[in-house]
Each structure stands twice: as structure tokens, then as C-alpha cells.
Amino acid sequence: MATLAKKQENTREILEVIKTSDAVYLTEYKGMSVADVNKLRREFKKDGITYKVYKNTLVKRAMDEVGGYEGIYEFLENQTAYAFISGDPAKPAKILKAFLKDHKKPEFKAAYIDGSVYKQNDLDALSQMKSKEEVIGDIIGLLMAPITNVVGALQAQGSNIVGAIKTIADKEENS
Q1: What does DSSP say about strands 50-53 and 107-113: parallel, antiparallel, or unpaired?
Q2: pLDDT, tens digit, for every residue of 30-42?
Q3: What is the mean pLDDT of the chain?
Q4: Domain spans of the chain, in order of start
Q5: Using the 8-state DSSP alphabet, how is residue 131 labeled?
Q6: What is the pLDDT of residues 43-74, one digit of tens each?
Q7: CA–CA gap between residue 141 and residue 133 (Å, rounded)
Q8: Is the pLDDT assigned to residue 94 strictly greater than 90?
């Protein structure tokens, strides 16, 4: 059994991870081999995602201290592993989805992203979410399209007008 000091240390660690994360994914790892858990952990680590097993009560205690995580408490049960991400909140879903193509476990339980809780049936939608950078790029593209069209139209009109004036001027000279 963990000592009080060890529990407090773990709670502080969890608290720091939660405070620096933009999203948290919960998976049930029951029935997974150690090799598979380690393989998944390595996949997450490649993208800077912390994937770790913590006691649910310690995670709840840390979430209580941060506040705002009440919607995910119902999923803090059984054998839960947590994936914490800073940055693109869709990355864990994409990694999990790819991993689940060849493996039956872990079971996706829920995700907490920007104050919203996503449940088990939302994994497909989460894995298809665009990153913040992709969304910004799309918005910039949409904003630039009208400007590009206007500039193109002005240039086309300008060359037509210049061409028409030149043709009229040439006719005047020849007359």
C-alpha cells in the first residue's frame, strides 16, 4: 500500500500534468499485455503525449483541485490509463484509432477537451478533427480567396480595358 507521502507526491505529479495539458483521454487497459501497453506508450510518446496509469482517486483529487473536470468523473473507474496532451487534442484519438486496427484493447472510455466530455462512441469523430494549425490554415485560405478573386478580376478587367483602349487608339491612328 502506498504511503501518504507517496500518494501526495503522485497527486502533485498528476496536478502538474493536468495543468499543462489541453486534453486528457481515458482508456481501460484491462486485458492488455505489458508488451502492448508499452508499444502504445511508445506511440504516444513519439507525439509528446504522456500515457500513464494513475490511481483513479488520485486523479479525481487532482482534477478537483484544478476544477472543471466534473463531467469526466463517471469514467474514473476500473483500470484506467490516462493520455495527457498539450497541443493538438486529436492526436491521441488518431494514435488510438490506428492502434485499435491491429489490437482489441485498450477500450476508449472518454476524453476531456476544452471543457467538453467525449464518450466512447466519439472516438471516430475525435480522430477526424483537424489540428488548430489546419483550422487556422483553412480560415486564412477562406479569407484570402475573395482577395485573390478580386485582384484577379481587376487584373483581367484592367487588361481588357487597356486592350480595348489600345484597339480604339490604333483605329484612330489608321483612320
Answers
A1: unpaired
A2: 999 999 999 999 9
A3: 84
A4: 4-129, 130-175
A5: P
A6: 999 999 999 999 999 999 999 999 889 999 99
A7: 12
A8: yes
User: Which residue is listed with cell 482534477?
Assistant: 63
Residue 114 dihedral angles phi and psi, to the nearest 5°: 45, 45
**Superfamily per CATH, domain 4-129:** Ribosomal protein L10, N-terminal RNA-binding domain (3.30.70.1730)
- For residues 30 and 107, give the distance between their C-alpha atoms in angstroms, rounded to a whole number: 8
Q: Are 105 and 29 in contact (CB under 8 A)?
A: yes
**Looking at this protein, which amino acid is placed at residue 106?**
P
pTM of the model: 0.74
Q: Is residue 132 scored above 90 in pLDDT? A: no
∠ at Cα 137 (133, 141), nearest 5°?
175
* Bond into 146 cis (ω within 30): no
